[in-house]
Each structure stands twice: as C-alpha cells, then as structure tokens.
Amino acid sequence: MSQETRPGDRPAVRGRGFSQIPMLPELAAVASAFLVGALILWVTGHPVLDTFYHLFQGAFGSWTALGTTLTRATPLIFTGLAFAVAFKCGLFNIGAEGQLHVGAFAAAWVGFALPPLPPLIHITLALAAGAAAGLLWAVIPAVLKVKRGVHEVVTTMMLAHVGILFTRYLVFGPFMAPGWIPHTERIVPTAELLRIMPPTQLSTAIFIALLCALAVYLFLWKTAIGYEIRAAGLNPSAAQANGVPVSRSIILALLLSGALAGLAGAGEVLGVFRRFVDGFSPGYGWDGIAVGLLGRLHPIGVVLAAVLFGALHVGGAAVDRVTDVPRDITVIMQAMVILFIAAPRLMSFIRGQR
Amino acid sequence: MRRITKEFPGVRANDGIDLSVASGEIHGLLGENGAGKSVLMSILYGMHQPDSGEIYVGGSPVRIRNPAVAIRLGIGMVHQHFMLIPNMTVAENVVLGFEPGGLLLRRQEIEQRVAQLAAEARLQVSPGTPVEQLSVGARQRVEILKLLYRQARILILDEPTAVLTPQETEELFVTMRALRAQGKTIIFIAHKLKEVMAICDRMTVLRKGRLVGTVEVGHTSEAELAEMMVGAKVVPASRTEAAKIGEVVLRVNGLTVEGARGERVIDELKLELRAGEVLGIAGVEGNGQAELVEVLTGLRRPSAGQVFLNGTDIAGTSPRAALDRGIRCIPEDRHKLAIVPDFSVQENLILGDHYRPPFKGPGSWLREQVIREFADRQIAEFQIQTPSRETPVRSLSGGNQQRLVVARVYGQGRVPALVVAAQPTRGLDVQAIRYVQDKLLQLSDRGAAVLLISADLDEIIAISDRILVIYQGRLSETSGSPSRHELGLLMTGGRA
Amino acid sequence: MTNIWEVLLSVGLFTATIRMATPLVLAGIGGVFSERSGVINIGMEGMMLLGAFFGVLASYLTGNPWLGLLAGMVAGGLSGWLHAFLSIRFGANQIVSALGINILALGLTPYLAESIWGSRGSSPSVTGLPRWELPLIREIPILGEIMGPHAPTVFLMLAIVIVAHIVLFRAKWGLRLRAVGESAKAAATAGIPVQQMRYLGVIISGVLAGLAGVHLSLGHLSMWTIGITGGRGFIALAVMIFGNWRPFGALTAGLVFGFADALQIRLQGLGVPVQFMQMVPYIVTIIVLAGVMGRARPPADIGKPYQP
C-alpha cells in the first residue's frame, strides 16, 4: 500500500485533536479576535495600529519582553492543562483559580515553615504540597459529581471563591508577615526555583510546566488509564458498558486537574514571588479555560495558547502603561477567542461556506 | 409526490421517487431498512425539504415547509419512535400546539374534549394520566388521537407494528379499517410483508432510495414483494451442521429486577443455556429484555436471584467482571453502548480489552505496536471497510460499525463463554443482517453459548435451537418448532 | 460587640433578606426560562454585570434611573441573544458559549468604564432608583418594615414570580416552552417552532439577569463597581436547581440564600474573620446542591442542540 505524496502536498499533522488543516480554526479565531479588538478600539476612539504595535512590542520586542511573556505563560500552561485534562473526561473544572490559590499557599508554607533542606528535596516537597492542595480542593466536586450527579461547573466555581477567601484569611491573619503588606514570610532560599533569565522573573518553573505537558500527553494517549478517561469523556455509557470504570475515571481526571492547577500556584510562589502575596494571581485560573479551549485540549496546543495569552497580557500591560488604552482590551479579545472557538460552524459560515 | 429527491451527506436517501395515494385507501410503503421510506414521509410531513420534486395534495401543488404546514393541510404522522412528552398528561400531549381557548390553558375543558374524541374513535385512553405511565399500545393510541384531534385526513403510520404483539396488531388494523370507512387516507410504512398483505389496498415498494413499483394487493404475492424489496431471493441464515450442545454455561435462578416505581420488570426469571446452543428469546420490547441484558453484562444489579456463569454467581458485579469472565455483548443501541464515535477504529477495537495484556503493558502503558497489528488483523478478517485504522468510527456506515462490534465479540481469538446479542440486526440491510446471523451461528459452532434477544420472529425462528418467550419479566417455554401464532400468543401472555 | 440573638431577631435582617434575594430570584427565574426551553445558561453572571453597567451608564447619560432600568434589561437581553445565537444557530457548546459571555462582560465593562469615566474599577455615583413603600402594607407592624422601603426592582421581582408561574404553568405558551425543553423532537412534530421558542427562553433569561444587575447597581449602590455581581449569577443557578425549575421554588430558594448573605454581613461584627463570613453563600450553595440533586430533575432534553 503506497501513499504517494505529490509535490505541494502538505502532510496533515497526525496527532489527536488536530483537524485536517492544522490549526486553521484556531488561527481564524485569533484573527477574528484581533479584528473585533480593532473594532472596539476604533469605536472608542483609540488608534488601532499604534495600540497593536505596542502590544507586540510589549510582548516580544526585546529579550526582557520575551522573558516576561514566558513568565506570564508558565502558570497558564498549568491551568490550561488542568482545564484540558478535566474536559477530556467531559468535565468542566472552572475552579482552577481557587485550586491555584491553595496550592500557592501550601507551597509557600513548605517554603518558609520548614528549615533549609537540600534544594532538590525542598523544592520537590513544596511542589508536592502545592499539587496536593490543589488536588484536595477538587475532591468535593469530584465526589459530589460521582455520588450525587452535581454538575461540577457550579461546585468548582463556588470552591474557587472559597479558596481565594480562605487563603486571604490566612495571609491577612495568622500568617501575615510583620508589616502592613498582606504577604507571608519569604520562603527559604533552598526552596526557590532558579531564575534563568535575569532580570526577568522567568524561572525553572517553565521547564516543570513543559514537563507536565509532556506527562499529560503520555498519560492521556499512551496509557490504559488515560484511554479510559478519554472514553468516559466521549461516550460514558459505551465506556461503562465495556468495562471502563467511569466513576473512577471522573474522579481521577478532576483530581489530576486540581493538582495541575495547584502546581500553577506553587510555580508562581517558588519562582516569581518567593512568598504568598494576596492578589498574586490576575486570574490565571480563569484564563486557563481559554487557554485549554484554544489549545484544542491537546498539550502542544495548550503550550502555544498559553504563550499567546501570556503575550496578550504582557502586551496589554505595556499598552496600558504607554497609551491610555485600558488593559482590559486583551480580556475582551480573550473572550472573543472563546466565543469564536465555541462555535466552529460560525467560522465556516464566515468563510462563506454552508 | 413527484420525482422527489433528497440527499444527506454521503447518501441519496430518495432518488426521483413518484408516489401517488388515492383518497380513502390504505397504501403500504414498503422497503428494507434504509430504503428511504421514513425520509420520504418526513418530507411529506414537513420535517425535511426535498432537494427537488413537487408535492400535490388534493390536486393542488403545495410546499410543506414544516410540520405546522403539514398539519394545516390535514396530514398527520405517527412516528416509529413516539413523539410524546413523558411527564405530561395524555390530554396535554394530544392538544399540544393546538390548544383551545385564548392565552391560558383550560385544563378541564381540554380533558373533556380529549375524552370525547377518544370515545368517538373508540380508542381507550384516560386523559389525565401522565404518558410515562402508559403501556406501549396505549401510547400509540395517544399518538393516533393526536392526529384525529388535528383533523388529519391523511394519516402516516411509520412502522406502527414494530412494538406490538400480533394480537395488538390486529386491534390496530381494526382501528385502521374504521378510519378508512370514515374516509381517511392511510399511508402504512412497514417492512413486514404479512401485515402489508393483510391490511393494504395498494403498495409501493422502495429500494435503496429508488421507486421499484406500485402494485395492488390482489395482484401480487409475498414472494413477489420480497423480491421487489431486495432485488434478489433472500435466504435466511441457518445451521449447516447439527448443533454441538455441551455443558450448561449460564444458569439464571429467581432473577428479579425492580423498576423505578417498584414494579417487577423481571419476575423470578429462570433460564439455562448450554455451550454451543443458540437460545432465542422472543418478545415485544419492554417486557424486561433490556434489563435482562443489563444484568448479564454487569450494568445492573438485580434485586434478587442468581446468575451462574460456569458455576460462579456473577449477579451484581461490574461490566469489567462480566468481560473478564467471557461475557460479550452485541447491544441493542450500538451508538449508546458499543462504540465511542470519536475514537478511531483501532481504539474501538480494543475497547473492553484495553486494560488487559497484551494491549496493556506494565504500569498501564499501552503497547502501540501490538494494538496496531491487532487492529489490522481484525479489519481484514471481519472486512471492516474503513480508510484506515485511525479513522473515527462515526464515519463508518452502520453495517461496518456492526462488523466492528462483532469483531470485538471474537476478541483476541478466545471464544467467549457467553454471547448476548440484543436486536443485533436492527436497522441493517440484508447483507449485514445475514453476516451477523452467520457470525452468531459460527460462534455457537465454536462452543460459545449464544443468547439471541430479538423482536424479529423470523430471525428467531431461523437460527435458534430453542425458543423462549418473554412476557412481563417471565419466560415461557415453547414446543419444539413453535409457529408464529403460538409465539404471538405467548408474547401477549396467552397460553399456547 | 453585638449579640447573635440581637442579630437574628432584628427586623433589619429580614428586610435585607428580601433585598439580597432579589437579584438571585430574578436571575434564577431567568435560568428557569432558559433551561425549561432546553438551553443551559451559566452566563447569567456576565449578563448581570452587563445589565448593572449599562443601567448605570444610561442613568449617567440621561439622569433618569428608569431609562437605566430599561437599558440594563436591554443589555441583558442582547447578551442573552448572543448566547442563543451561538448555541442555537451554530450549535456551540452551551457551557463554553456562556463562559465566553462571562469573560466578555468581565473585560468589556472595565474597559468601557475606563474609556468613559477614567476609572476601570468603578463608576461615579449616578441617580439611582427611588425607594418605594406599599401604602397599605406599611401600616402592618413588622411586615410593613420588612416590605419597605425597597427599590422598585424588589417589587418587580415579586410580580415577576407570579407572572412567570402563570406563564409557565397556566398559559399555552408555557406549555409549549416546556414541551420544547422536555423533547424538542416531539414539540417539532406538533408544529411548535423549536428554535424560536429557545431563542425567546434565552433572551428572557438575559433580560431578567440584566434586571438583576440593575437592582445591584441602580437599586442598591447607585453606582457600578467591577466586582458588583460577586458570583451571584452562579448562585442563581443553585437557586434555580433548588427551586426545582419553578418560579415559586426559585423565590423560596432565593430567600434562603438572601438570608445567608444578609446574615453574613451582620455577623461580621461578631469577631469571626471577615473572609469566613464571605464564604458562607458559596458553601451554602454547595451544601444545597449536594442535598437537592437527585431529587430535582431538570428538563429532559436540555443541553442538546436541536437538529431537524
């Protein structure tokens, strides 16, 4: 059996989750988002090209910018993976924001409450604590889903608020470092993640994130348990009838998702802030949803989408500093990406097909 | 209807069909599964638009854009799968969309009207009952009442007898003749030849989307109709050699399953099945077959009773345990229970065996090489037509999907201990039906115990070694070679 | 430090209960309309936010809070239309589409606030809605105090509960809407325009969510702030489920949550850390859902796009 390739044929990307023409719907969605953004800028009297120029400059225009973009992207890789893993099992984990808060605090606590240990051990413990805390925060939604059929959208969302409030209490209360700023003590230097691109805050956390992306890929597509999670997500009744323990898969997927979100917070604490600071997250958890969706729930896509959204935010901050355009324009564009991704037929409609 | 053509992605469901129905007649629309009968009628009822062709009602051309238009033209349709709202009452279902009065509902008036209408048509219903509590026959009466309420003059009945016993079918025919006497026109979609010959005045036969011909009942025979429907002589599957019946593989004792409202869906059921035997269970849908299948495959825990497979009681275990013990199933609803449509052919082929060696290696890793080779072998052996093993199963035709399901039954070459086949040939074309039946016989030749549950009496009679009838959760034995009449009686609870 | 009994037995608590229940009940009933027609709508948080914002904007521009009320409802209705458009016309995943609308609102409102007022966190004070009192009821000793003075949105809420119940369960249109949600195919064969009914259901939910937002901004604070909705759009989902998808049920559930919310504010003076009190509504939501799911049943055909 031969498969001739004629000159000019583009090999379709083979891999789960990619359409026949690689990434066309995603690129179209991003392009449309930029168009809508441009429209809003124009309607509110802001210069479009100038704004976009500053956006790109702020995100990619220098090594510092690039480093900042990647730093911003790192937690998004984690939360994007978190959303994707849950979604692969048909679940909506939108509580990543809360999971990452408790994960961040747990990692910080291991960072400052324990005496100095060999860095490898200390960091591993701190990361494990972060993952464990995030995992724990997903237990209640998982159990309620399996035992009572409660939709996890609401429970994860509610617990997100609870998680944010709880860590806020901890940092304003018992764990507040002396002074007026709502942050904890600094973590011990042996718990720090190495900065790899000074003067930016980019740390080895990004390698951990990429490692997690690889791990998620191997887990979901190369193991039997991952196969079961995907089957349970696509057709739970057929999966159940053929020996897939659907309940167990659901719980596994949600717990794994929580753990990944927890790692997002841990990475921020250990790599960027070196302590738990109230309000450290500008919404990484919520952004993770868009990142997961844009990335087509595939680890490679998630990484790319995370970089894109990181760029949007860093660029947006630059725009905010340099011009008088509010940074929220990037949030609007993010929403547009989600809406355009959500309606695949919308894209073909706009392209003039049926 | 003139030169009606309708295409769906991948298939031309109707290809230039002409159909003319005289008023006051019962007109049969015949054809195999997939011949295009339902599509043609759904066009008449406004649920689809034809790609080309015209429709004339009472001589005038019409455009039937949606069901509301059809209803206004006096066309009504009773679908094969009932279009009733389970948690609303009979009366609410009947008047839905055409409620009397102004903005507000007048409950009492509605119920009175419905009761009156039912009495006039001699259909037994109680207007205030929620539909979910009704039997299948009663629900069909509600559907017909819906048509009468909207003053339909042309009634389309889509395979109404699929869910009825022979006796209930007779009652339906009585009603149909009464309606014809009132001047109504009836289009009767069916693929059971005996019924069509019994009730219709004229018949139109479709095959693979094309019109084959229109005949009068007096001028044709069953054999001729069959040939028109299929284009060739149909030979049902049958055993080539005598069955080699071995030890008892399955013994069910006192099995009881209670339904949502506490009623007994399966009532102290007993059965014995031996290796190499094909046991056919005939019965009208809804008498406990689905629940029996669920218990055998580990999806449902019975309230009481034992299910011994090769000596071990497996009642109440999980689907995985059932699979481990060698129970394989061809489920009734393949899309819901057998395949994951977005998974590839390869991934679907290992579903159910995916957690075991040789597919699973140490530590949950999947052995890709082994899986690929297995998939290639299965595709070849079972002649599953697919562009590649990576193709998503949803792109396959129904017949090929069923081949995949059958391939899974064979697993990795080990003969399963028990094969449960629930309505395995429903919705398939003739060749696929024959294929599945041959495979079931082959499995039993190799020593599997085969349990065939089917509403198709011809199929059961053709390939079963023994036949039982299920009625209201209990099984009745039959004589050596029971007749359709005897089976029909048992299916309604009578005594042979 | 106030005594807990003083808090529990104060009339002010119950007055606050009704006031805080209002947005939950309004959005909850909105959710009922949407889900009864078969469309999941978790975007009410965003629709509420948009309603709150545009209500304030209209009042700012015209000085007339009633125009603000209208504007808020229109804004909510438009965002409802968008959700319906994506879900119904393009078969989008209904949860994703609603999430997108939430994020859109979260981005659009501060952006516009900054562009118009120069501050992305809040608007200036505007003319809010007046306070009304019911003339006869005011005389009744305790009930009178509980029932007024309130913003008109509170009384609108009570009226809407009754109207919604009549429409859904006693009117022809309501029967058809519910049929669409239970079985779109069956409704279609009865001649009911399924897509149209679903559009209406979702737009109504947007309008009511917008009204809920107006209550928060014009009816309470007389301004808009970025966090004004505080998750209430999601709590409204719990209200809807707890109320078994019925208007009077939503009223009961909304009052329960409103009580929890009002209580939490009053208890803050008691020495319990503020954050724990703020957690109460969210925790109560989870507990309620855990207890109620399994007994409550949503419309049978919900969430599935209808393909004729």
Briefly say what this structure is.
Chain A has 354 residues and is mostly helical. Chain A contains 15 helices and no strands.
Q: Which of globular, elongated, flat, extended, rod-shaped describes the shape of chain A?
A: globular
CATH topology of chain C: ABC transporter involved in vitamin B12 uptake, BtuC
Main sheet makeup of chain C: none
Mean pLDDT value of chain A: 86
Describe, in plain words, how this protein is organized in 3D.
The complex is a heterotrimer of chains A (354), B (496) and C (308). Chain A has 354 residues and is mainly alpha-helical. Chain A has a domain at 76-292. Chain A is built from 15 helices and no strands. In chain A, helix 1 (24-43) crosses helix 2 and helix 3 crosses helix 12 (284-294). The longest helix of chain A is centred in the C-terminal third of the chain and has 28 residues, at 246-273. Chain A is globular. The relative contact order of chain A is 0.20. The model of chain A is unreliable at 1-20 (pLDDT under 50). Helices cover 33% and strands 23% of the residues of chain B. Chain B has 3 domains: 2-230, P-loop containing nucleotide triphosphate hydrolases (Rossmann fold, 3-Layer(aba) Sandwich); 235-326 and 414-496, P-loop containing nucleotide triphosphate hydrolases (Rossmann fold); 344-396 and 404-413, no CATH class. A 6-stranded mixed β-sheet of chain B has the order 6-7-8-3-9-10, sandwiched between helices. Chain B has a 6-stranded mixed β-sheet with strand order 16-17-18-13-19-20, with helices on both faces. The model of chain B has no long low-confidence stretch (mean pLDDT 84). In chain B, helix 14 runs parallel beside helix 15 (430-445). Chain B has 17 helices and 20 strands. Chain B is an alpha/beta fold and 496 residues long. Chain C has a single domain, classed as ABC transporter involved in vitamin B12 uptake, BtuC (Orthogonal Bundle). In chain C, 71% of the residues lie in helices and 0% in strands. In chain C, helix 11 (232-242) packs across helix 12 (247-267). The longest helix of chain C is centred in the C-terminal third of the chain and has 28 residues, at 194-221. The radius of gyration of chain C is 19 Å and the shape is globular. The model of chain C has no long low-confidence stretch (mean pLDDT 87). The chains are: A mainly alpha (354), B alpha/beta (496), C mainly alpha (308). Chains in contact: A-B, A-C, B-C. Chains A and B meet through helix 9 and helix 10 of A and helix 10 and helix 11 of B.
